[in-house]
Amino acid sequence: xxxxxxxxxxxxxxxxxxLLVLSLGLLLAAPIVxxxxxxxxxxxxxxxxxxxxxxxxxxxxxxxVIRGYHHLEDGFRRTHHLxxxxxxxxxxxxxxxxxxxxxxxxxxxxxxxxxxxxREAANALSSFPPPx
Length: 132
Hints:
Structural class: mainly alpha
Largest sheet: none
Strand content: under 5%
Distance between the termini: 79 Å
Radius of gyration: 25 Å
């Protein structure tokens, strides 16, 4: 029995359609995966101070980072009605955690820490603009 001449064309057409759908899916997904930026949500002031101290240790505390830190610190104070003693306690915990982590890294070991967690901290803190 002889095969019909359009049989191969239909197979090619089906494959090209699948390839087109796959390409379109990848094209639409690439900007979402490649360019999405995670906005860090801080759970408490200790975490904010820790991240800020990491940027200080790593030399990444830009003006935007400092403004973001002050904005978050003020936001936690107002939202949670923190007293100055509670603020100092949480600041102390954050500083101690960052200092212990820095000491734990050893000579030169902090470079990788700064490249990963330091950059993440700087990006997270600078992403919080001051209130309008």
